[in-house]
């Protein structure tokens, strides 16, 4: 016969496992910068949904403590400075959340020119006048898009394509529609934060996963 003490110990262990997971308050306190950045880039409601989808005992932000202001200032400065062919462009770890699956997102000035994107029809598909999206089957299921973003003060800017990429757990945990919605939200947020002077239109439907 198992003693009541054994049941108490087992109960305490189970409770400890349950309580070890990070609640919203825990995450905001442990990762204040990432919490604010991810909410700003994807929207608080979308991040709440993601935290619910990925919830686990080790739910955490996996991206570096990079604020939206630091992200946009870095991208803006790269656009204004002369392009360094040796160094290339920085890839910014925008927002990452891991637990029962993983979300990652990045932003950078694209390595490909607009002409190269337009001619590579096997990979890139036009979603709008200034927006091209890559076939997810060719980039590991990521929603990868580029769009023209002219920066004020960068008159000699050789590169005007901004590339954003969102990787999310496979369906059914994250649906294709929600994955695409996250990619659209990230692109629109960065477009607005960078104040792209050409005001590119990022459509709701990128035409991927159809």
Q: What best-fitting shape do the alpha-carbon axes yield?
A: globular
Overall mean pLDDT: 85
H/E element sequence: HHHHEHEEHEEEEH
Number of helices: 7
Share of helix, binned: 40-55%
Uncertain segments are 1-21
The biggest sheet amounts to: 7 strands, antiparallel
Q: Determine the N-to-C terminus distance.
A: 59 Å
Share of residues in strands: 15-25%
Which secondary-structure class do the elements indicate? alpha+beta
* Overall radius of gyration: 20 Å
Number of strands: 7
Explain how this protein is built.
The chain is α+β, with helices and mostly antiparallel strands. Helices cover 40% and strands 20% of the residues. The chain contains seven helices and seven strands, in the order H-H-H-H-E-H-E-E-H-E-E-E-E-H. The chain has helices at residues 4-20, 24-30, 32-42, 44-54, 68-80, 114-119, 176-194, and strands at residues 60-61, 92-99, 101-109, 124-128, 131-134, 143-148, 161-167. Strands 1-2-3-7-6-5-4 form a seven-stranded antiparallel β-sheet. Strand 4 (124-128) and strand 5 form a beta hairpin. The radius of gyration is 20 Å and the shape is globular. 32% of the residues are buried. Residues 1-21 have low confidence and may be disordered.
Keywords, separated by commas or semicolons:
alpha+beta; seven-stranded antiparallel beta sheet; 7 helices; 20% strand; disordered N terminus
Task: Please describe the topology of this protein.
Blueprint: H1 4-20, H2 24-30, H3 32-42, H4 44-54, E1 60-61, H5 68-80, E2 92-99, E3 101-109, H6 114-119, E4 124-128, E5 131-134, E6 143-148, E7 161-167, H7 176-194
Antiparallel strand pairs: 1-2, 2-3, 3-7, 4-5, 5-6, 6-7
């Amino acid at each position: 016969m198992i003693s009541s003490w054994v049941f108490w110990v087992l109960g305490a262990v189970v409770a400890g496992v349950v309580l070890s997971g990070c609640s919203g308050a825990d995450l905001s306190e442990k990762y204040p910068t990432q919490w604010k950045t991810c909410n700003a880039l994807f929207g608080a409601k979308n991040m709440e949904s993601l935290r619910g989808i990925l919830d686990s005992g080790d739910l955490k932000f996996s991206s570096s403590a990079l604020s939206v202001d630091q992200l946009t200032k870095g991208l803006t400065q790269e656009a204004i400075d002369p392009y360094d062919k040796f160094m290339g462009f920085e890839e910014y770890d925008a927002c990452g959340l891991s637990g029962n699956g993983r979300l990652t997102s990045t932003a950078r000035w694209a390595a490909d020119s607009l002409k190269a994107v337009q001619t590579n029809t096997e990979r890139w598909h036009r979603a709008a006048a200034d927006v091209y999206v890559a076939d997810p089957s060719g980039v590991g299921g990521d929603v990868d898009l580029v769009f023209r973003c002219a920066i004020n003060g960068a008159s000699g800017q050789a590169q005007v394509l901004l590339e954003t990429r969102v990787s999310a757990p496979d369906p059914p945990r994250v649906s294709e529609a929600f994955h695409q919605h996250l990619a659209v939200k990230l692109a629109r947020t960065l477009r607005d934060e960078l104040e792209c002077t050409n005001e590119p239109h990022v459509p709701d439907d990128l035409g991927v996963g159809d």
